[in-house]
Write the structure tokens for this entry.
Amino acid sequence: MTPIRYRTIEVDGIKVFYREAQNVGAPKLLLLHGFPTAGHMFRDLIPPLADKFHLVAPDLPGFGLSDMPPREKFEYTFDNIARVIERFTEIVGFDRFALYVFDYGAPTGFRLAVRHPERIAAIISQNGNAYEEGLSDGWTPIRAYWEDASPANRKALREFLTAQTTNWQYTHGVPDPTLVSPDGQNLDNYYLARPGVDEIQLDLFGDYKSNVALYPTFQDYFRTHKPPFLAVWGKNDPFFLPPGAEAFRRDIPDATVRFFDTGHFALETHHAEIAAAIRDFLGERAGP
């Protein structure tokens, strides 16, 4: 078995923690997590893929065990997070790789793809959106903050940072919630409770509008380059709807779209099925 190692490297003054299953010479797969989690969301996905791929799962800046620079020294925008991850891939030697993107990982990874299409061998999107029709009404309070960044609208978003909301995100839409381990959500809540995290996350809620503004750019990349594409989607996600998954086929007609009867954090209940789908889909397409 390929061992999983836990490492930290410095990227332009920011320490980035990452998990790595270093299968030397194997196709490379970069795993990018979402809100409010970190690379630990891939703890069950990495082992069944480690014999076939060289996998790396970094914690984004401000998340998990990566550095959380103060807001006056690092502006928490998706552009800046993507720049850090871009440099991260260069430092760890990911010159050509497949992308697995989830939630916040999608606008991060899609920025990398737009800037360096030659580096992207394939894309797997697990509830990682790039189309307006994929956004549910659950985004309404966040959209209100985009329209008017008032203190009242910012305060209203604190509800998304509570332990109750985290737990709801993990279990909503899951037919049998007893299948969802408490470990991931409890760790997420631990990270969310750290001093200063709340303001960072509120900044990112506000900046998410930059991702929606880039949807046409992302879609143009899909149409132009048509990367091999697999969407694996928890169909009961309260934030990213199934039409957002189907929409990828509008720009990449050969895209494969698979739905699973689960919620936002599909890996919590369907990691084995998703791992099997990845192995079948990628084959040799990830490239060395």
Summary: The first strand starts at residue 4 and ends at 11.
